[in-house]
Amino acid sequence: ECQEHALRAIKPDITIKFGEIKITDKEYTETEYKIARLFGEVLGIDKVSVHDDFFRLGGNSILAIKLSHLMGKELDCVIKVADVFRLKSIKELSKIINILHVNKLNVELEF
């Protein structure tokens, strides 16, 4: 069993399936929903507000690393662990992701 667990750790599942999440706010963006699903996956929750603090929901430094990695894969941008510590909420993280996407688009348009 230990060897099997070690092999899974070395070769993680490529396909990541996230469960549904309920956002308690009446209005939210598509990016906020995607981040909320990642919060749910990492924290093991099924309901969240876009204003909730990642760390007050049970997040810690190890989970922040996991969240930043998943956000990078799922949202096609580089989110540093320091960004999770600094921004903390879905709302604030979505703002930086939107800025990163706009900057990426502007760079692509220049070439």
Describe the protein in words.
By secondary structure, the chain is mainly alpha-helical. The protein contains five helices and two strands; from the N terminus they run H-E-H-E-H-H-H. A two-stranded parallel sheet has the order 1-2. Residues 1-16 have low confidence and may be disordered.
Q: In summary, what is this structure?
A:
The chain is mainly alpha-helical and about 110 residues long. The chain is built from five helices and two strands; from the N terminus they run αβαβααα.
Beta-strand proportion: under 5%
The end-to-end span amounts to 52 Å
Helix/strand class: mainly alpha
Using only C-alpha atoms, the radius of gyration works out to: 15 Å
Could you estimate the helical fraction of the residues in percent?
A: 55-70%
Low-confidence stretches: 1-16
Largest sheet: 2 strands, parallel
Count of helical segments? 5
Overall geometric form:
globular
Record field, number of beta strands:
2
Global mean pLDDT: 84
Q: Give the SSE string.
A: HEHEHHH
Strand order of the largest sheet: 1-2
